[in-house]
Amino acid sequence: MTRVDKISEVRHLRFQQGLSFSEIIKRTKLARNTIRNIIRSGKTENTYHRDSTPQPQTGPFRETIKGWIKEDSDKRRKQRRTATRIYAILRDEHGYTGSYESIAKCVQEIREELNLSSKESYIPLSYGPGEAFQFDWGEVMVYISGKLVKVYIGIVVLCHSRHFFVRAYPCQKQELMLDIRKRHINPILSNS
Questions:
Q1: What is the pLDDT of residues 77-96, one digit of tens each?
Q2: Residue ranges of the domains in the chain?
Q3: Cβ(49)–Cβ(41) under 8 Å?
């Protein structure tokens, strides 16, 4: 694939500077056919796409691998054959002479084909009103009476409503964290 900047350079050399094909070849170090295709086409990107990739090494073993993956789908994860293990078995017991990468790619394709590839999962966090909050300290430089002073801010974020409360303190102590909870969180909890 020819990069867009190379395509732009070839067009500039041909149409702006009026250089010949042989001069463009010397400057860009691209093949004559590539330069001809760039100049004749109106495309900004020159790509090549193959519909199917030939797999001469894994082809004869594909059904064996597929059978192993189907057989392992009922087993626990630790007991399943990995791509590394499949490669070792094929190499040692079945005379496979190809690379590990080919086997790994074949295993991934078969797992996707059988809808066995790992799924993304998550546990949604949801909280009721007043059930939980998050607390953190931050530092801010402020001017107090014309003097630059470091002030610590306590930040409380309610998990349900995502409302936040901020209060400034001269230092970070547990008593001050409890103070911000007493001033802002306890009144909310007593109202709910």
A1: 888 888 999 999 999 998 88
A2: 4-40, 59-113, 133-191
A3: no
